[in-house]
Design goal:
- 2 copies of one chain form a homodimer.
- Chain A is of the alpha+beta class.
- In chain A, a hairpin with a 6-residue loop joins strand 5 (78-85) and strand 6 (92-98).
- The longest helix of chain A is centred in the middle third of the chain and has 10 residues, at 45-54.
- Chain A has helices at 12-15, 45-54, 131-135; strands at 25-31, 37-43, 58-61, 66-69, 78-85, 92-98, 114-117, 120-123.
- The first copy, chain A, has a domain at 12-100: Phosphoribosyl-AMP cyclohydrolase (Ubiquitin-like (UB roll)).
- In chain A, the strands form 3 sheets. A 4-stranded mixed beta sheet of chain A has the order 2-1-6-5, with helices on one face. In chain A, strands 3-4 form a two-stranded antiparallel ribbon.
- Helix content of chain A is 13%, strand content 31%.
- The A-B interface holds A 11-13, 16, 26, 28, 30, 34-37, 39-40, 52, 82-88, 91, 93, 104-106, 108, 111-116, 119-121, 145 and B 11-13, 16, 26, 28, 30, 34-37, 39-40, 52, 82-88, 91, 93, 104-106, 108, 111-116, 119-121, 145.
Chain lengths: 145, 145
Amino acid sequence: MQDSSPRVDSPAWLNAIRWNADGLVPAIAQDATTGDILMMAWMNAESLQLTAQEGQAVYWSRSRGQLWRKGETSGHQQVVSEIRLDCDEDVILLKVEQKGGIACHTGRRSCFYRKLEDGEWVTTASVIKDPESIYGKTKGSTHGE
Amino acid sequence: MQDSSPRVDSPAWLNAIRWNADGLVPAIAQDATTGDILMMAWMNAESLQLTAQEGQAVYWSRSRGQLWRKGETSGHQQVVSEIRLDCDEDVILLKVEQKGGIACHTGRRSCFYRKLEDGEWVTTASVIKDPESIYGKTKGSTHGE
């Protein structure tokens, strides 16, 4: 659990967020053009502030316990055109341009590639690019979560 | 914290979900026609199973500690056309038809009605219907979260 207490110089818009007990909020990434939902990850105050400053999605990787600059290995950055906040101030929505057209670490466009059909999760989207060719064989998983 | 351990008769598709420590996963509701993101709430195993069975969104209200049948007071049910699962099996995406065209307890179409502009959260969507006329004066907030 990282230290997520707002810094003294945190701007008001950032202090308005209601972080969970771990100092995180869910962040949904939506394709700004097609409206497709690409993924959901988590942000702490620093990652959200960096996202706003840099105009590219920066998440918090819970598994790695560190900032996760989306696309740092894959090149599949998310260029952010809008940052939205929900009525409870505890969920973020990003509208993004997905570089490479691939958001998912499986090499698919969206992480939501499975659909419930007749009591089974059915894969409805194909792999655009082999994850090994995205991340390399020796680097292991660079999946942020 | 409710008992969210899978029941003996839980179907395989439900057991595939990786619930958090509280037995919950985030569930995003997206307008099936326009692609607009309407809200994000939480589900436990029972609420997800009921959503699949009934074809209407049933969430878990963390504030009330009980099942939250979306629209039970407002009439603004969400008719579910698709249930999707992400690559980590820990986020649900619902594609829905939003009855009444209002998903948010503030009387707006979407909960994501604020946008970050020049370091401020700016409201970009107007109230379609006064919440008092949706929920009544004496009932108090029926906001699920």
